[in-house]
Amino acid sequence: MTQAQKTSPTPRLGLKERYAMMTRGLGWETTYQSMDDVFPFDKFEGIKIHDWDQWEDPFRLTMDAYWKFQGEKEKKLYAIIDAFQQNNGQFNISDPRYLNTLKLFLTGVSPLEYAAHRGYAMAGRSLRGVGARVACQMQSIDELRHAQTQFHTISHFNKYFNGLHDPQHMHDRVWYLSVPKSYFEDAMSAGPFEFITAISFSFEYVLTNLLFMPFMSGAAYNGDMATVTFGFSAQSDESRHMTLGLEVVKFILEQDPDNVPIVQKWVDKWFWRGYRLLTLVAMMMDYMLPKRVMSWSEAWEMYFEKNGGALFEDLARYGIRMPKYHEVASKEKSRISHEAWAIFNNYGHAANFNVWAPKPDEMTWLAEKYPETFDTLYRPRFEWLAEQEKQGKRWFNNTLPMLCQICQIPMAFTEPDDPTKICYRESSYHGMKYHFCSDGCKDVFDGEPEKYVQAWLPVHQIYQGNCFPEGTDPTVEGFNPLAAVLDYYHINVGADNGEFNTSPDKANWERWTGQDLSAAEPKVA
Description:
This protein has 23 helices and 4 strands. By secondary structure, it is mainly α. A hairpin with a 2-residue loop joins strand 1 and strand 2.
């Protein structure tokens, strides 16, 4: 060996070579156990993979770079959270009604981040491709980080306002939170490829903008800069997740033509399940934000009809069409937020956030955004509710509603072509009838009835006596089942009975800020 050879520096690996060494180079074929026994779950769905090395992370991110990037983001995030707390930023928000969007996010969305963390860890363990395992591991860590930063950020509000004290407990029990909970449990109890299609593609790529944009933009419009910051901190991760979701679906479709009908069935199913889940977001956008960003209808047109339409045009070359019932979702875009807020006005005394009838200027905004439906179909209902409240006759529904077996939302949605008639579908399985809010939910059930007959429906569980604190005796004289259920939920409704105008949040806000919210109604942006 010459002196020059001895002293010449080792050439540095390029990004692509380094990524290959840090992913594919870490795997091996098993010897004393077969690969099929070690990875039993990545074949039973019928998906055929011929070359795992074709799985590409478009960002080619390695773990050393990942920790560096995330560490830098954490420093910036917690510096801003600290400044927000020291400056009492919780009193700089536009209106205390905004706090109810945080309650919905903390109990309905943040626990989903933790569920995604668990789901990707399980998916990564189930896939025999090394690149896929590394990608799932990084996304699992991302999702855990998102859950932690959200809990840490919003925990500051818990020092001053009600309903934020026990989000994980509520997520596992409260009736309306079974809607997001059932979505992720459905995905996590599927196979690894269906899980990734459900979360990485249908939720992260197709629908995530309809979730994060309203909450984060809504926070910015209403002065909650701490929530905006954790949204921005997560957004670079979400961009990576969205890209990965699309690449995963393309990878599966390119591996074998037999995969196409399986993926199409999953796309149909998870589009509809995700769309129904976003009903809570639609309601939040149109009714719960004191200063609104845009209407649900506008968001749906922008983020699904335009962006989603372009996506599925691109996927058409693989044989994938638009999701089934997408046209129904577009028909409902002018109705679902109003129907959902009407449900919560009926049952606000059993939720961890307050409800209210929209104010006159807010109804004017709704009429402008929904000129074909609001004034004729929904304004009379909310004006009646407001009048009843003025007379001290605020009405709540004390009976329990029928729930859809799939989405688990009360059966209050209307027929796609008739907004004055409740949509009702049913199927029979092993001699039992099951009820659905739509053709989409019925199709999901009919595809896997043996799975969905096991759904944990809150109304059924309450009637069976399974939603009372341990030791409760419902036979005692004067037993109040609603009070017992709320105790089981860890919700202390108190004197306000779910109504914002008599809530401790409103009273505390007025005391701390010196504002009288009754003197001047906040204006809509």
